[in-house]
Design goal:
Keywords: Signal. This protein is an alpha+beta fold and about 70 residues long. The chain contains 1 helix and 2 strands; from the N terminus they run H-E-E.
C-alpha cells in the first residue's frame, strides 16, 4: 500500500512540474535580422569591395501614436 502511494505521489509531482514548465516558459518576442550586402569603393587594393550591414531588432508594441497631435492636428 505504501509503495503504490509513493509511486502515485512521484507521478503526480512529475505531471505538475511538466505542466508548470509549459505554462511558465512563454516565448519571447520575435527577433528579426536584416542583412544588406552592397559593393563599395575603398582607398586600398582591391579598391572595389563588398560590404555588409546587419540590423537586428525585436518586435514589440508600438510606442508611437497612430494619429499625431500638435499644431494643425485636431
Amino acid at each position: 500500500m505504501f509503495f503504490s502511494k509513493s509511486v502515485l505521489s512521484v507521478v503526480a509531482v512529475l505531471f505538475v512540474g511538466a505542466s508548470a514548465q509549459r505554462k511558465g516558459a512563454a516565448p519571447g518576442p520575435p527577433v528579426f535580422t536584416a542583412t544588406r550586402v552592397y559593393n563599395t569603393l575603398t582607398d586600398v587594393p582591391p579598391y572595389f569591395v563588398t560590404a555588409t550591414t546587419t540590423v537586428t531588432w525585436t518586435q514589440s508594441p508600438s510606442t508611437t501614436f497612430a494619429f499625431p497631435t500638435g499644431p494643425g492636428h485636431p
